[in-house]
Amino acid sequence: MSSAAIGIGAIILIGLWFSSFILCLLSLRTRHSIGPIVLVSTILITIILLSIPRSSVATPKPDIKIVDPLYVWRLATLSILSISAAIGLAALFSSHVMSRKTVPQLKSWVL
After folding, report:
1. DSSP string computed for 65-102
2. Where does the sequence pass through the membrane (predicted)?
3. Are 34 and 21 in contact (CB under 8 A)?
4. Could you tell me the pLDDT band of residue 83, with boundaries at 50, 70 and 90?
């Protein structure tokens, strides 16, 4: 198991918070105010799950250390591409929102 693996507890917490968020949004649209109850119960379950200690698993330390010499350049390329994608999406959204939309005039009216 690698160090970047997500455990079952994290998956439970993600699902719990996502479902409580959805229930809070649904609570806003209805007359029932279950949002605070769901939020308090989610906070309590999160505190309980975070207070349970993790099991200690002895992982063997690898002797081989892999070093990527191009890490900085890949990170720089990723950041430049992310910034340009964000700028492009913002420009696309602004041109779509700012474009003038007119309704064509009816030439003839027939019943």
Report:
1. ----TTHHHHHHHHHHHHHHHHHHHHHHHHHHHHS---
2. 6-26, 33-52, 72-93
3. no
4. very high
